[in-house]
Design brief:
The chain has 227 residues and is of the alpha/beta class. The chain has helices spanning 16-20, 32-35, 59-67, 83-94, 105-112, 127-133, 137-145, 167-171, 203-213; strands at 2-3, 28-29, 76-79, 119-122, 153-155, 177-179, 191-198, 219-226. The strands form three sheets. It has a four-stranded parallel sheet. Strands 1-2 form a two-stranded parallel ribbon. Strands 5-6 form a two-stranded antiparallel ribbon.
Length: 227
């Protein structure tokens, strides 16, 4: 088996299910050494509102409950945003290693299947950022995972990378998203699931949810690779 991050081949036993259904055997997955660099978030013990690892409630949740009382994302994430995840995000998103879109594809597909939703909506990039990077880091992973999504949002304002802004600046950022006019009528009564790469302050996902909330969906939840 080839590791989906370091690209080194490693021995791996085939499960009984895979013997019976060999098409379920992934082409790549994390080797034991790379897998140890990530911290999986237990959804039973994370914050019920923002999904933060081993947290009952946090200041972010109190802030959003006051700022956006009509939005209840009940956010969940796959991994904690620790050093291992930061290293992967840096190589994948900032260094542009497109091959890494496959790293967590199987795990993300499995987690997304835990949600009940009608439409999966990825956070978009601005036209300027897409031209610089060459790909959307969220939709690339979804494509690798074979998960269908609907690109119903546009990012109409190009914002500076989060690393270049303070927490205060991020929270005070103006609305950068707009719903595409040709899909606005499809939102009413739908269960929406937003997906992004990283949840830090929550500002990006709440902005996206606010843009969608205008068109009366039944619910809006969110998921990210890391929290």
């Amino acid at each position: 088996m080839e590791c989906s991050w370091c690209q080194i081949f490693f021995p791996r036993e085939v499960t009984i299910i895979e013997l019976l259904a060999p098409w379920r055997i992934p082409e790549k997955e994390l080797c034991p050494q790379c897998a140890q660099r990530f911290t999986v978030i237990d959804w039973q013990s994370c914050c019920p509102t923002c999904g933060k690892k081993d947290t009952i409630s946090c200041s972010d949740c109190l802030f959003w409950a006051k700022t956006c009382p009509m939005i209840h994302l009940q956010h969940r994430a796959l991994f904690a945003y620790d050093q291992g995840m930061k290293a992967w995000i840096h190589e994948y998103k900032l260094m542009g290693n497109y091959q890494l879109r496959e790293t967590f594809a199987a795990a993300i597909r499995q987690k997304i299947n835990n949600f009940e939703y009608d439409c999966l909506i990825p956070i978009p990039l601005s036209a300027e950022r897409y031209q610089q990077r060459g790909f959307n880091q969220v939709t690339a992973v979804l494509d690798a995972a074979g998960v269908k999504s609907q690109e119903w949002l546009d990012k109409v304002v190009d914002t500076a990378p989060q690393a270049q802004r303070s927490r205060k600046q991020r929270l005070e950022e103006a609305q950068p998203f707009a719903v595409k006019p040709d899909v606005a009528c499809e939102i009413k009564g739908k269960k929406l699931l937003l997906i992004d790469d990283v949840y830090t302050t929550g500002r990006t996902l709440y902005h996206a949810a606010e843009a969608l909330q205008t068109f009366a969906p039944q619910s809006i939840r969110s998921f990210s690779f890391a929290r």
